Structure formats: C-alpha cells, structure tokens
C-alpha cells in the first residue's frame, strides 16, 4: 500500500473527486487503482474564500512498485507506514510473579494499566477519586451548587483531569512508533467515534469520555487487572541500603492501609495532586521545579470566531466550530499563548482545593454551545519567577488561586472582566454583549488583583496583537474569567533513561504530573512508554519457561 499526502480538494468537492484526484496525482488509469482509504483529513483555511480539504490517502494499486519508482523523489508518495502496535514484553502464561501497581486512573494511568494488563501482568490500579459515574455527580455539584468535594472533582477520580474536557486528542509530541495510534485505536474500541482515526484534530467531548473510561476499566478487569478506588496514596515506605540505594517497599493509603510493593509502581498523579507532591518531597523522591503558565480564560461568541476563520463558509458541516491557536512574544520578554482552546464549549470551575478558584474549558462532542473559550496564558519560569525549591510553583499557584477566590466573593464564583475594561485598567461593573458560561457564576471586577503584574502587562499587549490576527478578538465585550493556573505541572518527578525515578528504585514517574506530558494524548502515550519499561523489567524477572 502507498500513502499519498497533501492531496488538496475544495471544501465542497464531490465524492468521486477524491479517487479522480488520486488517479491524476499518480498518473494512473481507473483500472490501476484497486482501493483507497482516507488516512487523515485536515482543512486549510488560510484563504477563507478558498478553503481546501487536505487528505492523506492509502492506496492499493495494481503495480505499486512501478508507481513508487516513478515517484521516488516525491516526498508526498511513500509506502504506507506500519502503525500497528507490538507488545515489547509478555508475561508468562498464568503469571504469578510480582504485580505492578499504577497510581492514578487518568489517561496516563489508564493506558499504563491497559498495556500492562494486555501484556498479562494483572496490574493493580489505585485511584484517590471515585468511579467515573459517581465522580460526575460530585463534579457537577461544584458547578451547580458551589459544593466542592476535595477528593472527587474535575481533577480527581476515574478518567483523570481529561474526563470533563473538550476531549481534544492530538499532540505535537514526536511519535516515531505511532503510539498515539494505539491510544486512538483503544479509544475507538472503547466507544469513541471512528473518525478520530482520520481527523487531523480529533475530539470526543466530555460525555463520551465517561462511557469510554468505563469500557476500558471492564477490559482491564477482564484481563485480570484490579481497581481500588477512593485509595489515596498518602505515604511511601522507602528502604535505604548501606550503599545509599533507596527502594520503594510499600504504599500507605489515607485509611492507614498498607500495600506491599512487589513489583514496579507507576506514579501517574496528574498536575493537581499537590498534597502528594509534598509527600514525595518529604520522602526524598527527586523532584525539580519546571516552567508552567498562568492567565485567564477568554470567551467570544463562537459565531465571531467562525466568521473570522471561515468567512462565507462559517457553519459548514465539514469544518465544524472554528478553533484557533495564538501566540505573541511581548516587549517584557514574556510569551503569551492560547491554551486548550474549546470551540463551542463552556468555561468550567476546575479547582480541587477548598478556598481556591481555577478555570479550564470543556465541550460536548457537538461543540454547539454559544461561546468559544480558550486559556490565554503567560509562560513563567522557576528560576526567574518563583525561586525557592521544587515546590515553589505550587505555592505560587495556590497564592493566586486564593486571590481569585477572594475576588469572586466566595462560593467558587470566579472574578471576571470585560476585555475593554481589562485593557483600560479599570474594574468591570457590568457585562456587555458576551455572556460568560462559567458556573457557579462570575463577579465583574478587576483581574489585575488576581495575577502577577508581569502576567497582566503581557496579556494586555498580547490581546491587542491577537485582535490583529483574528478581527474582533480584542472586542471590548469579550469576557475574561480567572484564573487559569492548572496548565501543566509545576514540578517534574525526575526519571532516568529507564523511566525510573533517579533516586528511588521501583518508582516510575509518568504523565502530566511527573512533568513528562501535557494533554490527554501525550499523557496516554507516556503511560504506554512507562508500561513498556515496567513490562520489560518484569519479563526479565520471570523464570525461563
Ligand atoms: P490526570 O488526568 O490528572 O490523572 C491523575 C489521576 O491521579 C487522577 O485521577 C487523580 O485522582 C489521581 N491521583 C492523584 N493523586 C493521587 C494519589 N495520591 N493517590 C491515588 N490517586 C491519585 N487535554 C487534552 O489533551 N485535551 C483537552 O481537551 C483537555 N481538556 C481539559 C479540560 C479540563 C477541564 C481539564 C482539567 C484538563 C484538560 N486537559 C485536556 C488536560 C488533560 O486532562 C491532562 O493533560 C491529562 O488528563 C493528564 O493525564 P494524567 O493521566 O497524566 O493525569
């Protein structure tokens, strides 16, 4: 099979235009083209009067070798890559050896658990939060009734932080082994729409994620894996040998229960397990501070973004709700960028800690809510902005999240401001034409009280610059809701080339919380990589058959 990339057709092309374009491109007759399938579909809307669909197609031809020889210098005609997943290790039949433990059932832990189960190692997955259905009720409790459950919320519980999200499933990570394809394939098996395998920017929205997570749990359990919910790892027992080697021996839960560690432990905590990060530090596990970003969520009517992006084609079913990516380097040397943009979605209360406010965005599969929202965040750096050790970034996040809680007036109401007032440096007293979607509600105020000065200065400059890229972006009625702090982990749980903690044998830090991923897909891919390292180490221990 051959893959042709960058095959462009106009937005409203007829179905038969695609095989015709393939034949033209390869200069072959209809009889030579045996079959074709779409491998990927994107759109190019740089010229909104002439939006193009951009295909990669896999073709089966009568004489592929001859065609390939003819196009040997053409980088858009190649043999189709093998994207199938192959296990790197397998447990012996009826494996009775040590069982790996996975801490955290977010995308990283889910995929680490799934791969280990598929290899036959019967993992134990421990998760501080509840099963996803119960967790859903608790999460909505904050949004509807201002009731925060500190152990069961948008950050904690089965499915992890990505469960109530836009469900964007792409990433810019380097992925030469096509592990992202394994993730998407498993998601489809678990109930995701098949189009995620071909769309360039797939998304699944929040409701489907709930049932997918349940389906993946059933798969892991059917393979001999085991879940323990409402089990928060509160302590580690680490044995130090005479030569200084530290080895993980047991996990201790909030109940006081102890789980002896027989095999490797994957630590897939996510970026909001601040209490656990403190515990790791207290137990001497190697941590370091890493950059992250802070800012606000911005909302515009989706129709403004669609119009600016797609012009007369706004609303076309093949395009869906328009997304955007923005970035601006400021005079104060700060970079401001859009983060986790959610077309046709809502801004959500994303705190996991009482007395603090943090925002994020989510959407349904249909992406047909009134507003587009996106984080507008400013990159910050440990050495420059929060010196003071590996946990200083957490202290910084907490400080500003408390300020935002106070500015909102309590009850997890978020502080908000019209963009026009924000740029003019005056508090907002009323909304304009844009109605914010954040629940339990917003208080119009001055966001300059809720973020460091350098963040505010950079955002003021960048929002005007963004208005030059997307006409109307800097409309005075656009609403800013604050504050966005959970963009990525402020710490890294440092690991070596073997994926193991650099100073604690048996501990495998993984995913977003450990600082090795950002987003659902990259966290899941990291989970696979770590599961492979764990699987290899367990297979090496197994007695020869
Ligand atoms: P997490 O998903 O955070 O999972 C960590 C798990 O560990 C949690 O379930 C937690 O309860 C558990 N845990 C923590 N501490 C302990 C402990 N001590 N003991 C036991 N268990 C513990 N990314 C995208 O790619 N696309 C999106 O559209 C998107 N939208 C988002 C929307 C929202 C509202 C949020 C909050 C995030 C969104 N993200 C999105 C980011 C994405 O969710 C994360 O990047 C991803 O979930 C990280 O995966 P993870 O498995 O590393 O960590």
UniProtKB/TrEMBL annotation:
Protein name: FAD-dependent protein C-terminal domain-containing protein
PANTHER family per UniProt: FAD/NAD(P)-BINDING OXIDOREDUCTASE, FAD_NAD(P)-BINDING OXIDOREDUCTASE FAMILY PROTEIN
Origin superkingdom: Bacteria
Record-linked SUPFAM superfamilies: FAD/NAD(P)-binding domain
InterPro entries on file: FAD-binding_protein (IPR028348), FAD-depend_C (IPR049516), FAD/NAD-bd_sf (IPR036188)
Domain FAD-dependent protein C-terminal: 291-487
């Amino acid at each position: 099979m051959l893959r042709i990339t960058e095959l462009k057709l106009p937005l409203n092309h007829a179905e038969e235009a695609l095989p015709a374009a393939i034949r033209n491109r390869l200069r072959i007759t209809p009889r030579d083209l045996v079959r074709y399938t779409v491998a990927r579909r994107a759109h190019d809307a740089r010229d909104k009067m002439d939006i193009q669909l951009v295909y990669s197609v896999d073709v089966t031809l009568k004489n592929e070798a001859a065609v390939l020889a003819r196009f040997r210098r053409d980088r858009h005609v190649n043999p189709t890559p093998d994207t199938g997943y192959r296990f790197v290790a397998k447990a012996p039949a009826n494996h009775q050896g040590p069982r790996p433990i996975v801490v955290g059932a977010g995308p990283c832990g889910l995929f680490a658990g799934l791969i280990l189960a598929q290899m036959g190692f019967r993992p134990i997955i421990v998760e501080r939060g509840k099963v996803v259905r119960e967790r859903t009720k608790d999460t909505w409790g904050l949004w509807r009734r201002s009731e925060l459950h500190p152990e069961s919320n948008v950050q904690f519980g089965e499915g992890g932080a990505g469960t109530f999200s836009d469900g964007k499933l792409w990433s810019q990570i380097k992925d030469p082994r096509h592990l992202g394809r394994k993730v998407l394939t498993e998601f489809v098996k678990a109930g995701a729409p098949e189009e995620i395998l071909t769309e360039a920017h797939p998304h699944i929205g929040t409701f489907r994620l709930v049932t997918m997570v349940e389906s993946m749990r059933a798969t892991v359990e059917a393979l001999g894996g085991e879940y323990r919910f409402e089990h928060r790892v509160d302590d580690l027992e680490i044995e130090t040998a005479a030569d200084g080697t530290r080895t993980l021996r047991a996990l201790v839960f909030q109940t006081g229960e102890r789980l002896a560690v027989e095999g490797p432990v994957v630590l897939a905590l996510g970026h909001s397990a601040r209490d656990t990060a403190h515990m790791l530090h207290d137990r001497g596990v190697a941590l370091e501070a890493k950059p992250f970003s802070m800012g606000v969520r911005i909302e515009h009517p989706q129709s403004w973004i669609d119009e600016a992006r797609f012009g007369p084609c706004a609303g076309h079913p093949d395009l869906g709700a328009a997304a955007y990516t923005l970035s601006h380097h400021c005079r104060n040397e700060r970079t401001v960028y859009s983060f986790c943009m959610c077309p046709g979605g809502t801004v959500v209360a994303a705190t996991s800690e009482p007395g603090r406010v943090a925002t994020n965005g989510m959407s349904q599969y249909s992406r047909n809510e009134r507003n587009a929202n996106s984080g507008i965040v400013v990159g910050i750096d440990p050495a420059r902005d929060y010196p003071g050790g590996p946990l200083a970034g957490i202290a910084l996040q907490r400080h500003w999240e408390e300020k935002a809680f106070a500015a909102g007036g309590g009850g997890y109401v978020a502080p908000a401001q019209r963009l026009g007032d924000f740029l003019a440096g005056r508090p907002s007293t009323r909304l304009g034409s844009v109605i914010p979607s954040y629940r339990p509600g917003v208080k119009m105020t001055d966001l300059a009280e809720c973020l460091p000065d350098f963040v505010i200065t950079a955002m003021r400059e960048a929002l005007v610059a963004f208005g030059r890229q997307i006409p109307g972006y800097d409309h005075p009625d656009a609403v800013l809701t604050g504050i966005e702090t959970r963009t990525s982990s402020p710490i890294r749980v440092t690991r070596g080339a073997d994926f193991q903690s650099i100073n604690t044998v048996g501990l495998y830090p993984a995913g977003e919380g450990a600082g090795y991923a950002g987003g659902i897909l990259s966290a899941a891919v990291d989970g696979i990589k770590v599961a492979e390292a764990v699987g290899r180490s367990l297979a090496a221990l197994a007695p020869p058959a």
